[in-house]
Design goal:
[formate-C-acetyltransferase]-activating enzyme activity; iron; alpha/beta; Pyruvate formate-lyase-activating enzyme; cytoplasm; single chain; binds iron/sulfur cluster; S-adenosyl-L-methionine; TIM Barrel
Length: 243
Amino acid sequence: MTVTGSVHSWDISTGVDGPGTRFVVFTSGCPLRCLYCQNPETWRMRDGHRTTVDELLTEITKYRRFIEVAGGGFTVSGGEPLLQPDFVAELLHRVRALGLHTALDTSGYLGARATDTLLADTDLVLLDIKSWDPTRYRRLTTVDLAPTLAFARRLSELDRPVWVRYVLVPGLTDDLDDIDGLASFVSTLHNVERLEVLPFHRLGTVKYTKLGIPFPLEHTPTPEPDLVRQVRERFARRGITTT
Ligand code: SF4
């Protein structure tokens, strides 16, 4: 039976969704509502297109040689891919069977839905840890932090490679004590290859305007270079490589 999922779109990207040039599938549907979300058009599963794994494989195969030469791979992103775990598991399995490097971009909130088999078919997890403080995390995302931390620990136990992502938002995720807490937690994991500090930007504002919904961080500035430097330094103190 062909597995079907709700997909918003797919694209080729370089340097933002894992190593090298990648074929990226954006799934539809996400249980979070992050204040800084740059992809609000992916929030609702019913807005996506019903797509089979076979259809996506046909597209991916067209780019396979190009991706291999560019030292890249395949990334499933969203939305939240783990909202459709069977579809994503089949997709990762089939793409990996082509010999391509596979990555899963996730908030980790639904990490319990990822089977060990799905994770074995995932060469890299891009794990967003959006805040260290549970109250701030809830205010930022509308959901609990604990499932993401549990997923991070499980990935460490399974020894699956992880890049942690941290979006730095002035006035929201720039508390240096929180960052020390996150750095301390990440330093206990054995599988984190790097931590990406991603400075907040407002490029997604136009999408909100198009959807007719207010962008909550419309007036939030991008972080000053000195703040970005200080945050990177806090992670470096714990021996964590940042990019
Ligand atoms: S988890 Fe990602 S897609 Fe979902 S609301 Fe947050 S930033 Fe947007």
